[in-house]
Amino acid sequence: MVVGLFGGSFNPPHEGHLLVSEIALRRLRLDQLWWMVTPGNPLKSKSGLAPLQERIAMSERLVRDPRIKVTAFEQSLGGPYTAHTLAHVKARNRGIHFIWIMGADSLRTFHLWQEWQSIVRTFPIAVIDRPGSTLSFLSSNMTRTFDYAHVDEDDAGALWKKPAPAWTFLHGPRSTISSTSLRLAGAGNPRT
Fold first, then answer.
1. What gap in Å lies between CA 67 and CA 89, rounded to an integer?
2. 188 vs 87, which has greater pLDDT?
3. EC number(s) in its UniProt entry (predicted)?
4. Which residue range is the domain that position 177 belongs to?
5. CATH number at residue 92
6. Residues in contact with 92: Cβ distance below 8 Å, sequence separation at least 6, in sequence order
7. What is the pLDDT of residues 110-132, one digit of tens each?
8. Sign of torsion, CA 115 117 121 124?
C-alpha cells in the first residue's frame, strides 16, 4: 500500500487542500492520503488557531473522497515536530510505503523545521506547487542540499519505490485559496 502523509493545521480546511490531495492521489498513485491535522505549528502563532476537534470536524465535512483519511494522532505523541511524527509513523507501519506531501510554500522555511534533514531522509517527499511558490524549489535550502535526490515529476508515480532521500516537485492546477485568507475574511466554515 502507498500512503501520502499531508500534515498541516487545516485552520480552516478548504478546497485548496482538496486540490493538493487530488493531485497527490493521482500523480503519486496513492492508495490513501492521510490528512494529519496538527495540534499546532511551532513556527506559527497559535493566535487564531481553532480548537483541534473543530478543525478535525471541518476537515471530515469537507472530504468526500474515501481514500482521504482525516487523522489527529500527532496530538498523542507528546510533541509538535514533524521529524518525531514521521519517525513514529515509520516505526509502526513497516508494510506501508509512505510519501510526505508538502506545499511548495513550505519550502521557504523548511530549513527552520526541527531536524529538517532527518525528515528528508525518512520518506520520499512530493512538493506540490502553490501560487507564488513555483520557483521556490530552485532556491530553497532543502532542494539545494538534496539536489542529487531529485526525481523528475514524470516519474512521480514511482516515487514510493525510491529510498529516501528522494523528492519531486509536482506542477499542476493551483488554488489561490489559503487558510490565512479565509480566516482574515471570516469565512472559516467549509461547505457543509
1. 18
2. 87
3. 2.7.7.18
4. 2-185
5. 3.40.50.620
6. none
7. 999 999 999 999 999 999 998 76
8. positive
